Amino acid sequence: MDTVTSAQVINKDALLRHWLGHRNLTRRVIEAFPEKELFGFSIGGMRPFSQLAIELLSIGGPAMESIVKDEPLPYNEEALRLITKEQILAKWDEQTDVITRYFNQLPLERFSETFNLFGQYEFPIIDDIFYFIDNEIHHRGQGYVYLRALGIEPPMFWERD
């Protein structure tokens, strides 16, 4: 009989550092926008970057809290009424702290458990976390397109500190 051994590719701390690196970069993209364009500029019918940032704010922190407390909560983007860049950045920092706090409370054993995210999706928690990161990368890419269209050089995508 063959014995199958599994090697760990990334540990929990490295995964959190990876996610927080993406959050740091997305924060810099938000900072790069002039206030008016953050809320009003779009291309091809896509939402302004402020709305994309508010979507991200409505997912990461609230979802991690919901997962750790094992209390599926509905998605609620409408609860955030942020009307200035300063408010978005402050909420970004607050929610990054929430992500960090709850991620650190999540035991490794739970990463393979299924969780009913926002009462809509049943996936393993690790897949939910990858979704949070992937969704942020996707929307940040839209922000890069907007910034370039506005003649603004976006931050380098590999600079995540």
TrEMBL record:
Belongs to the DinB family. Gene3D superfamilies: dinb family like domain. SUPFAM superfamilies: DinB/YfiT-like putative metalloenzymes. Keywords: Metal-binding. The keyword Zinc-finger does not apply. This is DinB family protein.
